[in-house]
Design a protein that fits this description.
The chain is mostly helical. The chain is 77% helix and 0% strand. The protein is rod-shaped and about 70 Å long.
Length: 48
């Protein structure tokens, strides 16, 4: 506000950014689970 920038205008985008961050975290967790599963499957293919 001191430099003429109104911070109140950013509140309308905050809920969208929270949803985007949450969605990114969920996608990251799913990707980690799939990566671990692929690693386990590759290890099992090599041992049999």
């Amino acid at each position: 506000m001191h430099h003429g920038f109104a911070i109140d205008n950013l509140k309308q985008f905050w809920t969208d950014s929270q949803a985007l961050i949450l969605m990114g975290a969920v996608v990251y967790i799913i990707a980690t689970i799939f990566k671990k599963g692929v690693d386990i499957q590759n290890e099992n293919d090599l041992t049999v």
